[in-house]
């Protein structure tokens, strides 16, 4: 006996189909970076120790330049100075009381509790298990709430169309971006371009959890600090000398 | 006496001129959006320092006004004030229209407005923004149901319950809007929970000012009677709301100044040498606060509709300025990144923002969309009572 489709059945079946489609499509997520050999785990926590006493101004300029070169930002033609991306920048500070001047490179601090990830409505801002904070450019709607939330002003918005992008670093007009700690290198066993650019011990990159790593051992010995430590974000980037 | 609702005729030259004027403005808005989205945000005054610009000023102004415009209906159905009852339908309509305008601006200013579907399907429940997406969408549904209960005679008995839900929803919604700023821990200009209740009280004032202007204009232009009882009561209420906004502004700034961490930003806004200080004192406080209160409460001007209209307009202008000072002024001043240190290079200067024409047109376009929606809907659905003369609307009316 053929059953006539009444309104209730129609609604039931369309709801089921819609729910099904929604379930399947929500599973399709394009991931920005994926480790090739081993999965990213929380057994590691990537971090960087920057010793400002060991860095010269030209070291810091080099860090900025190699980052631009490595990741292909900074050659935007239409954007004004304040509109251009700033994945890493040179910051000069003076102590209000003593007048001591320090210079340091500033980038995404790869917080353990990143405010940008908390505020992102679409989960585009995310933290990998190994502590690297990234933006999924496929999910970013360009609302810029993360830029409002970041205590370090470390995020940039792409203000114009881009050309000649690096294959390993897709970027896009209307989305937000920031330092990726060069995950494309780190996942292959390398170190971030900026760390590589400094020959001295001014920048040490490594696994903060690994008791045998240089960064872990150095941090046990010397005095270091986190920028805006009062916010309790537990940053992956640590500084010494400021 | 029974209230009879009736569509407006909407055949006059004035009606078509209004529609045409707003329509042209909306076309200009769409042109601006195309311009910005085609080129990218470099054609705006926004930057990595001014993350949110003029569109956000208008978007948030409209969104908070939207929730406030619903108050008139809430007073009638939740607090059972009979005088406001005939105004409930219009209140719901103005509320939805303003929200639509505000959300349009917000969405069209996104870097990727084409990905709106992502915002609707991917939720991070820790994000106030994500909550707001749900609250805004829900508000449309809740207020639409509320209006339906009001329109459908058989369902009138549910108006109280629907009104209570809508009232609660709008309070939560504006709390959410205020919390967008209130929870920005790193920014001294915003990090204060008082932002949420302050936004609620701002919504009361701005929403009512919009409502008064729309009510008076539609009754004047459609040549329907509008009695003093309603107009004077709304005027008095607006005065109270404006005073309350100023109280919250005072508490916010005094409380903030008490923290040494915030001394920089407070001095910058309240006593600085940039545009934000005169905007704060002259435009927000005097023009948008003290003058409207004087216009409303001065004995010689009581019951004067022109001055009430002017007061409402000034409250709205003051409101836009207030959001400008909060959003733009708050970003102009750098975050306190290195306490005890002064930043010489790389970050930390006071940034300058000059909005582009496209941004301003987009922002005002949101107002135009809200107004055109109200204009059309009062023509096609019976939102407005035929008469709001005192003998009809005032439950305490006594024949003289």
TrEMBL record, chain A:
A Pfam family it matches: Fer4_11
**Would you tell me the protein name for this molecule?**
Fe-S-cluster-containing hydrogenase subunit
The domain of life is Bacteria
Q: What would you give as a GO molecular function for this chain, any one?
A: metal ion binding
Q: Give start and end of each 4Fe-4S ferredoxin-type domain.
A: 99-130, 131-160
Mitochondrion listed as a keyword: no
Keyword 4Fe-4S in record: yes
Task: Output the Gene3D superfamilies linked to this UniProt entry.
Answer: 3.30.70.20
Keyword annotations for this protein, in alphabetical order, are: 4Fe-4S, Iron, Iron-sulfur, Metal-binding, Signal
UniProtKB/TrEMBL annotation, chain B:
Q: Name one Pfam family in it.
A: NrfD
Which InterPro entries does UniProt cross-reference here? Answer: Electron_transfer_protein, NrfD-like
Report the superkingdom from the record. Bacteria
Keywords for the protein's UniProt record, in alphabetical order: Cell membrane, Membrane, Transmembrane, Transmembrane helix
Q: Where are the transmembrane segments?
A: 12-36, 56-78, 90-108, 128-151, 163-186, 192-216, 237-259, 279-298, 310-333, 353-378
- Entry's Gene3D superfamilies? Formate dehydrogenase/DMSO reductase domain
Cellular compartments annotated: Cell membrane
Topology in the lipid bilayer is annotated as: Multi-pass membrane protein
Give the family, as the similarity comment puts it. Answer: Belongs to the NrfD family.
* PANTHER family with a match to the protein in the record: PROTEIN NRFD (PTHR34856:SF2)
Name the UniProt record assigns to this protein: Sulfite reduction-associated complex DsrMKJOP protein DsrP (= HmeB)
């Amino acid at each position: 006996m053929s059953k006539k489709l009444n309104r209730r059945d129609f609604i039931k079946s369309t709801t089921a189909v819609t729910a099904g489609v929604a379930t399947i499509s929500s599973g399709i997520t394009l991931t920005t970076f994926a480790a090739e050999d081993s999965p990213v785990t929380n057994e590691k926590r990537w971090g960087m120790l920057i010793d400002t006493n060991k860095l010269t101004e030209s070291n810091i300029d080099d860090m900025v330049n190699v980052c631009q070169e490595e990741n292909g930002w900074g050659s935007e033609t239409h954007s004004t100075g304040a509109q251009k991306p700033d994945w890493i920048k040179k910051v000069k500070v003076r102590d209000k009381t003593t007048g001591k001047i320090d210079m340091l490179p500033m980038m995404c601090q790869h917080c353990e509790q990143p405010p940008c990830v908390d505020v992102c409505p679409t989960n585009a801002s995310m933290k990998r298990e190994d502590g690297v904070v990234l933006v999924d450019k496929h999910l970013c709607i360009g609302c810029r709430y993360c830029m409002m939330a970041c205590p370090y002003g470390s995020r940039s918005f792409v203000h114009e169309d881009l050309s000649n992008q690096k294959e390993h670093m897709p970027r896009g007009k209307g989305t937000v971006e920031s330092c990726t700690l060069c995950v494309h290198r780190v996942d292959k066993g390398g170190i971030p371009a900026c760390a590589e650019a400094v020959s001295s011990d001014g920048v040490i990159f490594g696994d903060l959890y690994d008791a045998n790593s240089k960064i872990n051992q150095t941090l046990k010995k010397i005095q270091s600090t986190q920028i805006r430590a009062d916010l309790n974000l537990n940053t992956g980037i640590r500084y010494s000398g400021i | 006496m029974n209230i009879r609702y009736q569509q407006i005729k909407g055949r006059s030259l004035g009606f078509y001129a209004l529609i045409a004027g707003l329509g042209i403005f909306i076309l200009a808005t769409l042109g601006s959006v195309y311009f910005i989205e085609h080129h990218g945000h470099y054609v705006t005054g926004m930057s990595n320092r001014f993350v949110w610009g003029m569109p956000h000023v208008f978007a948030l102004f409209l969104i908070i006004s939207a929730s406030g415009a619903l108050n008139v209906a809430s007073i009638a159905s939740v607090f059972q004030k009979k005088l406001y009852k005939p105004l409930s339908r219009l209140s719901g309509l103005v509320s939805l229209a303003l929200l639509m305008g505000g959300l349009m601006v917000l969405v069209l200013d996104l870097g990727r407005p084409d990905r709106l579907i992502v915002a609707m399907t991917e939720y991070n429940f820790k994000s106030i923004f994500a909550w707001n997406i749900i609250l805004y969408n829900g508000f449309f549904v809740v207020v639409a149901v509320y209006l339906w209960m009001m329109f459908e005679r058989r369902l009138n008995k549910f108006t109280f319950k629907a009104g209570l839900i809508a009232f609660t929803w709008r309070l939560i919604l504006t709390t959410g809007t205020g919390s967008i700023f209130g929870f920005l821990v790193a920014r001294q200009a915003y990090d204060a929970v008082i932002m949420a209740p302050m936004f609620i009280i701002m919504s009361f004032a701005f929403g009512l000012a919009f409502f008064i202007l729309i009510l008076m204009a539609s009754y004047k232009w459609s040549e329907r009677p509008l009695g003093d009882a309603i107009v004077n009561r709304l005027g008095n209420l607006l005065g109270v709301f404006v005073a309350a906004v100023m109280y919250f502004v005072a508490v916010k700034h005094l409380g903030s100044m008490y923290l040494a961490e915030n001394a920089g930003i407070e001095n910058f806004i309240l006593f600085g040498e940039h545009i934000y200080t005169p905007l704060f004192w002259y435009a927000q406080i005097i023009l948008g606060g003290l003058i409207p209160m004087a216009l409303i409460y001065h004995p010689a001007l009581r019951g004067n509709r022109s001055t009430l209209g002017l007061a409402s307009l000034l409250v709205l202008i003051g409101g836009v300025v207030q959001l400008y000072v909060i959003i733009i002024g708050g970003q102009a001043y750098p975050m306190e990144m290195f306490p005890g240190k002064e930043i010489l290079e790389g970050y930390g200067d006071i940034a300058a923002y000059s909005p582009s024409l496209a941004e301003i047109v987009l922002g005002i376009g949101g107002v135009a969309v809200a107004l055109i929606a109200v204009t059309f809907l009062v023509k096609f659905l019976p939102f407005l009572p035929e008469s709001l003369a005192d003998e009809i609307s005032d439950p305490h009316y006594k024949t003289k």
